[in-house]
């Protein structure tokens, strides 16, 4: 594979070195590796550049295994013994680091490439609009479907499987072996899908794309930014500047289960999501707005309860305002 | 929260030389190591940690490691997409859906399937231990206890799974080039 050929140029290294490299990965995956072992790892790396090479190779294998592992588990699920207290996911930043998503070469290319580029056309569209709190699933054709979050408006051209996203949030699922089964347009940016699951949020000013399977290429002519499964980008529509972050599939798709999952997310982004789901306005006093939030919000609870909880997490109080809510110190 | 943050940056300052040494050994590129160290510093001074950190220095090492992995990945991706786009040619705006060929995607899918087939051949116990460790995130120590075997025996099982994939990647490369 052309995309992989540069990686495995060191097949001649002794097995012992490969084993040591794997051992360092295993230790890191185990319970937290103490600093004394990190110092030992440093010394091991310093012995010869071959150690770094072997380690990077082992990482590639580790990432591939992370992709293949779940499939393997599924095939043998019945046989598996399931009574040994598997720890539940735990949303501390530390654990998140250890669960950073895999980007094996196989994984990166596996399912999807999504492409943005300028240019659009305007055929006949039907408009779909959801109310606040309403979640609607729409089949576009036999292999493409979307789930719209509340307060979302989009125009759908079924014949050409093209969606113009005007505002809000939706997840697109494409189960087609043929690329280009779906086109999503956001102003003059186009996303073309190559068979994947991805979530798009658009505001007046920003666009967020989170990919849960496969990979996304943004602006292939110039910036050539690749976003892989487990990553999310927030892009300003006015100048296309962007920030990227890591995100879990659970967090991306949680709104479909009436939940919002936040992992170390800035208050402003959290508030925006809550506003969209409840159709309300929330202002946060400056003293509280520079924090980050990790946690789960159930949208099944009523609005006042959710906003009071959020206020408490921020260390403030919620007050009813003329149009919505205020969270103050 | 505030305390953790300032605590972490103090530990960073006190151990800067160690972390730099690690990154230099990890990347074999002192300029890159310096950049990555700077990235880590920015992360700890702008991010928030919730909850206490048992071993702040180990935590910082781990941040350095992940930053190095990210940098390596970006490099790999850059190479991959340069290849991709040079192969795709420059006329993709003309024909929207064809420039990334489905064949390529199919090949990758096929490789994954074949890798899966290789892993399938592992003995049941090896496969079970591998899944517990790599997917369910159970530690080697816990696996050793529940399987009633030594930790080094657990490691041997795991090494086997990694070897299968390493070998698969190697053969694959040889075959495709």
Architecture overview:
The complex is a heterodimer of chains A (329) and B (177). Chain A is of the alpha+beta class. Among the domains of chain A are: 107-250, Jelly Rolls; 258-328, 3-Layer(bab) Sandwich (Phage tail protein beta-alpha-beta fold), CATH 3.55.50. Chain A contains eight helices and 19 strands. Chain A has helices spanning 15-29, 35-47, 49-75, 93-98, 105-110, 249-253, 267-278, 303-314, and strands spanning 113-118, 126-129, 136-139, 144-148, 153-157, 162-174, 183-186, 189-192, 197-202, 206-211, 215-218, 225-228, 231-236, 242-246, 259-266, 282-284, 292-298, 317-321, 324-328. In chain A, strands 1, 2, 3, 4, 5, 6, 7, 8, 9, 10, 11, 12, 13 and 14 form a 14-stranded mixed β-sheet that branches. Chain A has a three-stranded mixed β-sheet with strand order 16-19-18. In chain A, helix 1 packs across helix 3 and helix 2 (35-47) crosses helix 3 (49-75). The longest helix of chain A is centred in the N-terminal third of the chain and has 27 residues, at 49-75. Chain A starts with 14 loop residues before the first helix and ends with a strand. Mean pLDDT of chain A is 73; it is low at 1-10 and 78-122. Chain B has 177 residues and is mostly helical. Chain B folds into two domains: 2-81, Rna Polymerase Sigma Factor, Chain: A, CATH 1.10.1740; 101-176, Arc Repressor Mutant, subunit A. Helix content of chain B is 79%, strand content 0%. In chain B, helix 6 (124-135) crosses helix 8. The model of chain B is unreliable at 1-5 and 85-105 (pLDDT under 50).
């Amino acid at each position: 594979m052309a995309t992989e050929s540069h990686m495995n140029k060191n097949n001649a290294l002794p097995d012992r070195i490969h084993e040591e490299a794997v051992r360092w990965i295993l230790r890191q995956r185990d319970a937290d590796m103490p600093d004394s072992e990190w110092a030992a790892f440093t010394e091991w790396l310093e012995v010869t550049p071959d150690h770094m090479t072997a380690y990077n190779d082992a990482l590639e294998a580790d990432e591939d295994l992370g992709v293949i592992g779940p499939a393997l588990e599924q095939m043998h699920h019945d046989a598996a013994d399931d009574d040994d207290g598997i720890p539940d996911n735990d949303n501390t930043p530390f654990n998140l680091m250890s669960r950073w998503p895999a980007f094996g070469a196989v994984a990166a290319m596996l399912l999807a490439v999504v492409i943005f580029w300028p240019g659009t056309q305007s055929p006949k569209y039907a408009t779909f609009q959801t109310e606040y709190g309403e979640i609607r699933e729409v089949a576009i054709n036999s292999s493409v479907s979307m789930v719209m979050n509340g307060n979302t408006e989009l125009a759908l051209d079924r014949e050409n499987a093209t969606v113009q996203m005007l505002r809000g949030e939706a997840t697109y699922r494409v189960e087609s072996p043929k690329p280009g089964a779906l086109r999503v347009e956001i102003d003059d940016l186009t996303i073309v899908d190559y068979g994947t699951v991805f979530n798009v949020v658009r505001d007046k000013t920003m666009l967020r794309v989170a990919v849960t399977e496969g990979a996304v290429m943004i602006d292939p002519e110039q910036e050539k930014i690749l976003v892989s499964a487990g990553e999310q980008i927030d892009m300003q529509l006015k100048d296309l500047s962007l920030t990227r972050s890591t995100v879990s599939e659970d967090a991306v798709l949680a709104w479909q289960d009436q939940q919002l999952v936040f992992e170390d997310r800035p208050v402003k982004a959290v508030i925006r999501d809550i506003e969209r789901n409840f159709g309300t306005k929330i202002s946060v006093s400056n003293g509280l707005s520079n924090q980050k939030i990790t946690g789960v919000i159930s949208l099944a609870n009523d609005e006042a309860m959710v906003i009071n909880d959020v206020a408490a997490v921020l260390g403030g109080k919620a007050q009813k305002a003329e149009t919505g809510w205020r969270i103050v110190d | 929260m505030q305390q953790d943050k300032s605590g972490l940056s103090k530990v960073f300052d006190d151990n800067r030389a160690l972390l730099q040494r690690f990154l230099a050994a990890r990347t074999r590129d002192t300029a890159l190591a310096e950049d990555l160290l700077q990235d880590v510093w920015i992360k700890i001074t702008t991010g928030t940690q919730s909850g206490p950190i048992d071993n702040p220095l180990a935590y910082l090492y781990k941040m350095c490691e992940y930053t190095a992995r990210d940098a390596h990945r970006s490099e790999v991706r850059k190479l991959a997409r340069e290849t991709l786009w040079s192969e795709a040619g420059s006329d993709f705006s003309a024909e929207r859906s064809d420039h990334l060929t489905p064949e390529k995607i199919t090949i990758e899918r096929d490789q994954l399937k074949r890798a899966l087939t290789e892993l399938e051949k592992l003995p049941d116990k090896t496969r079970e231990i591998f899944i517990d460790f790599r997917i369910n995130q159970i530690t080697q120590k816990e696996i050793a206890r529940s399987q009633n075997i030594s930790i080094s025996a657990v490691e041997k099982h795991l090494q086997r799974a990694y070897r299968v994939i390493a070998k698969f990647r190697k053969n694959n490369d040889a075959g495709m080039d």
